[in-house]
Amino acid sequence: MAKTKQYCVAENWGKGFIEHGESSGIQFRGLPGDVWQLPANNKHANLWIAKVAGAIKTKDEAQTIVDAEVTKAQNAWDADNVEGESAEEKIARIGAKPADITLEE
C-alpha cells in the first residue's frame, strides 16, 4: 500500500508559517510537539517543508514525539486538582483530559 501521509517537525512562528495559498492546496494537520502531518508524494507539501526548514520524520518517530507531548499534557491535567471539585467541575474549569493520538500511515 502506498504511503499517503508524511510527517515533519517544524516550529510554528506565526503569521506566514502557513500562507493562504498553501492552506488551500495542502491538507495540514498540526499535532503536539510541533509535528505536522501532510500528504506524501506531494510537490506543494514538500516545498512547504523546505520553506519552514521542517525535519522529516518517519511515522514512528513522529508518533514518539506526539506520545511524549500528550503524556506530558495528561500528567499536567491529572495533577491540576482542586479539593472537593467533581470530575464535571474539573472538565468545566480546564477542559477534557487530552486524548491519545494515533498517527495514520
Describe the secondary structure blueprint for this structure.
Layout: E1 5-9, H1 20-25, E2 29-31, E3 35-39, H2 43-51, E4 55-57, H3 59-79, H4 87-94
Antiparallel strand pairs: 1-3, 1-4, 2-3
How would you explain this protein's 3D organization?
With 105 residues, the protein is an alpha+beta fold. The chain has one domain. The chain is built from 4 helices and 4 strands, in the order βαββαβαα. The protein has a 4-stranded antiparallel beta sheet with strand order 2-3-1-4, covered by helices on one side. The longest helix is centred in the middle third of the chain and has 21 residues, at 59-79. The radius of gyration is 17 Å and the shape is elongated. The mean pLDDT is 95.
Tags for this entry?
105 residues, 4-stranded antiparallel sheet, alpha+beta, 42% helix, single chain, 4 helices
The gist of it:
The chain is of the alpha+beta class and 105 residues long.
